[in-house]
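1st attempt posting a full record on here, be nice pls
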Amino acid sequence: MLARFGPSFFSMYALAKPLLFALDAEAAHNLSLLALDWLYACGLAKLIARPSPPKPVRVFGLEFPNPVGLAAGLDKNAAHLDALGALGFGFIEVGTVTPKAQAGNPKPRMFRLADAQAIINRLGFNNLGVDALLKNLERSRYSGVLGINIGKNKDTPNEQAADDYLWCMDRVYERASYITVNISSPNTQGLRELQQRDQLHRLLGSLRERQESLAALRGMRKPMLLKIAPDLDDAQIDVMAEVLKANAIDGVICSNTTVARTAVAGHPMAAETGGLSGRPLMAASTEVLRTMARRLRNEIPLIGVGGILSGSDALAKVEAGASLVQLYSGLVYRGPALVRECVEAIGAR
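the predicted structure (as tokens):
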């Protein structure tokens, strides 16, 4: 039946893209999610995404139907989970969520660099808080692998950051398939300082202790992952790998957005503050992934994210050491068809 739609099957997003790109980037983001929800509610989600072929993989002790996931940040409050789940992802990560609701940074705070296939955002962990996210999950029918990405509130000092992460972990533990600790967003002042050796060791030590306590209490152990920045040199990666192994972290996500602007030097929007994602992030994030893979020596599984705009990009992440990959900015420029393309590219390896 779907063949009846012919070329329009894959051109729906191509037709909508110019209209979306005529809007402010954040407004287009919100409108796209609302439109996706409407299509899903009307039973029309198959018009914009063909099912991905099965490519099962077991990572972190979890079974994934395919290795291509949605990165955190697109659905911060888990408000669009059912519709996103119809796009063929092998897993979805929601958040970043914080203990209390926060508005994030002033608008405008999201910018497209269309000719570079890039996005700059300085959203700042805007979300409705962990309790609102859990209420959305109660209403959701999504039953796939679910990651929940947790962070600290902007007004929480780093000395008390562990309290925020522990608060969120306690609350999301039962609903999450895995939990991601985000200490690498460039848009919360001072957050990346938590990547330094002593602070990271203390934070992960507290979280690992709570993880095992919750596992014993709930009778099920949920993997805990750490999301790192791409703006790390070899010495910093060495230190981080040492701390990760010492604390027996279940997985690492490489990487978040970058504060570097070398790849977009001279662009009119290059001076906008925030994290740069999309095509210009591909090389840096993949190099951090490759270096971390060498340091960890296959002891800790990795997720590769950053700059994936084609199936060959996804395959490059796998070849650099990733067991799974995640998409976000690539969906803005390529649309939902990118999901299946990445699954097929990895599957043909």
